[in-house]
Amino acid sequence: MKLLISYLLLLTSFFISCNSDPVPKPKGYFKIDFPEKKYVLFDKPGYPYTFEYPAYGTVVKDSTFFDDKPENEFWVNIDFPDFDGRLHLSYKVIGTNEFTKLVDDAFKMTSKHTLKATSIDEIPVKGGAGVNGFIFDVGGNAATGKQFFVTDSSKHFLRGALYFNSTPNYDSIQPVEQFLYKDMQHMIQTLKWKG
């Protein structure tokens, strides 16, 4: 009798549990421990600019540009080894390069991501004296989600693009990209031209 009652209880609980509606799991990400925001001044002699960059990044002189030498010696990268990312910074002198062509090229380079992008927002930025430009916020699975250019419109032009060494997947890299985006904004706000 006890065996029959146990069997009936088990059978009843089985049928009751099968009738409940499924509940989807909430969207989640791996927990990422972000470092504390601390900044270091980049002020190397001979360079035409200074800026603050995060202490968890490393400034490295850019030595290659599509298997050639960079256009000038003031191109640098900020490497983020903990995030497997890199902010490429390319500097150009206005006068040697035509200002309107530099601006057009910055917009064209961003628009090349329209095949994978779901959106491209152009956000005007103003840093310190003589630092104006745009940040491009590229949505979707584009190769780079954050790009910018800043200029004084007469002598200096600096373009940057944030890349990760992984297949573009917006859902996966979004938390890290947003974290580093704040550093990019800080860099623009603290950027100063020399000369």
Q: Topology of this structure?
A:
Layout: H1 2-18, E1 39-42, E2 49-54, E3 58-61, E4 76-80, E5 85-93, H2 99-111, E6 117-126, E7 132-140, E8 146-151, E9 156-164, H3 170-190, E10 192-193
Antiparallel strand pairs: 1-2, 2-10, 3-4, 4-5, 5-9, 6-7, 7-8, 8-9
* Total discrete domains: 1
Could you list the spans in which at least 5 consecutive residues all have pLDDT below 50?
none
What name is given to the CATH topology? Protein Transport Mog1p, Chain A
Please count the helical segments. Answer: 3
**The CATH architecture:** 3-Layer(aba) Sandwich
Task: Tell me what the structure shows.
This protein has 195 residues and is of the alpha+beta class. The chain has a single domain, classed as Protein Transport Mog1p, Chain A (3-Layer(aba) Sandwich). The protein is built from three helices and ten strands. It has helices at 2-18, 99-111, 170-190, and strands at residues 39-42, 49-54, 58-61, 76-80, 85-93, 117-126, 132-140, 146-151, 156-164, 192-193. The strands form two sheets. A seven-stranded antiparallel β-sheet has the order 3-4-5-9-8-7-6, sandwiched between helices. The chain is elongated and about 95 Å long. The model has no long low-confidence stretch (mean pLDDT 85).
Q: How do you describe this structure in short?
A:
It is built from 3 helices and 10 strands. It has helices at residues 2-18, 99-111, 170-190, and strands spanning 39-42, 49-54, 58-61, 76-80, 85-93, 117-126, 132-140, 146-151, 156-164, 192-193.
